[in-house]
Every structure is written in structure tokens, then in C-alpha cells.
Specification:
5 helices, alpha/beta, globular, single chain
């Protein structure tokens, strides 16, 4: 049994399979999930687990070379917008419709219980060397 890090066996295993350039969508409970990517659904109740908690846990285990979010987040969800801008100074902003299109090519989708709008980010995995 693992003693630290992500304990969810489905999520931990999915993360171990990721490679350089793979996309990981961390999304709120309302984001449409495209067909194709592997999905790990962590949603339990509205707000649980939160987007921020899941993002923090994933960033502790992943090398991320880029991130994309919906520009609508800036007006609709200033708290998550500030969180993303703090974590990713080069955050790419696109329309929500474009983010949904880009998400279809993700390798992994991690659904949170987040119930605030536009709490979604598409991460691009990097390499540790």
C-alpha cells in the first residue's frame, strides 16, 4: 500500500501511464466529458473534492509544461482564475467551446466535484529531465 501521494488506485495508475505531451483535463462536475480519454471520476458531492484540492494533488505528481483554460473563467470564477494564473504564469486562454474541442484529444480526464463555473484546465505533460 502506498503511504503518500495519490492513493486512488485508478488515478495513480493512470498518471503512471502518461508521457511527454499527453493531455490531462481536470474538470468541474458540469464539464461535458468527451468520448475517448480515460476518465477517473472523483466527484462525490457538489464541491467535493474541490478543483483546487485535485489540482494541487496532481501538480505534486506531474511535470507540466503548459496549461489551457477557458477565458470565460476570468469573469465567472475569479478565485479559480487567480489560482490558475498563479500556478501557470503562461496560462493559455481560449474560448470554452475551444477548450471542449481540445479536451477530446486528452489522454486522461479527472472529474472533480467542483460546482463553480469554468473550473477546468487542460494540462500538457512535460518531462522531468
Amino acid at each position: 500500500m502506498k503511504k503518500a501521494g495519490i492513493l486512488n488506485r485508478h488515478l495513480s495508475g493512470a498518471l503512471a501511464e502518461l508521457g511527454h505531451g499527453d493531455g490531462v483535463l481536470i474538470c468541474d462536475a458540469g464539464m461535458p466529458i468527451p468520448n475517448g480519454p480515460r476518465v477517473v471520476d472523483l466527484a462525490f458531492r457538489a464541491g467535493v473534492p474541490s478543483f483546487a484540492v485535485v489540482l494541487d494533488g496532481l501538480l505534486a505528481e506531474l511535470v507540466v509544461e503548459g496549461a489551457t483554460a477557458a477565458k470565460e473563467i476570468q469573469g465567472a470564477n475569479p478565485a479559480v482564475s487567480a489560482l490558475l494564473e498563479n500556478e501557470f504564469p503562461d496560462l493559455e486562454l481560449v474560448s470554452h467551446e475551444r477548450l471542449k474541442e481540445l479536451s477530446a484529444d486528452a489522454r486522461l480526464v479527472v472529474r472533480t466535484g467542483e460546482a463553480r463555473p469554468y473550473a477546468n484546465v487542460l494540462l500538457r505533460c512535460g518531462v522531468f529531465f
